[in-house]
């Protein structure tokens, strides 16, 4: 049986240890909190301080930076990037290759389409069709 973790050196020369999540085999850094019912697919990275709630689904190749929070039943499609300190609300859906900037907030049940970018600190709410609501 193979080991259940991997060590990776970051840009500052520090070695970070990631464990493979039992539900999807994505890589979870020490210090990140991922609910056992969440799915983190292989090839996804969850950095220290990030939190992923119950029922969330994290696709292949997703990068969740430090201190980001993913709400219950949120879905992050493959190859999306969730910036440091960003918050994705309960039931929100983030499309393929989306970028959510540092400290951005996506409201509960929002739909962010494929290839969209949300700037640092931006607050976004949409209806179920993905049309942005007035702030």
From TrEMBL:
Write one Pfam family the protein is assigned to: Hexapep
Query: What protein am I looking at?
Result: Transferase
| Keywords attached to this entry | Transferase
Instruction: Give the GO terms filed under biological process for this record.
Output: lipid biosynthetic process
A GO molecular function held by the record: acyl-[acyl-carrier-protein]-UDP-N-acetylglucosamine O-acyltransferase activity
InterPro entries xref list: Hexapep (IPR001451), Lipid_A_LpxA (IPR010137), Trimer_LpxA-like_sf (IPR011004)
Keyword match Transferase? yes
Q: Which domain of life is it from?
A: Bacteria
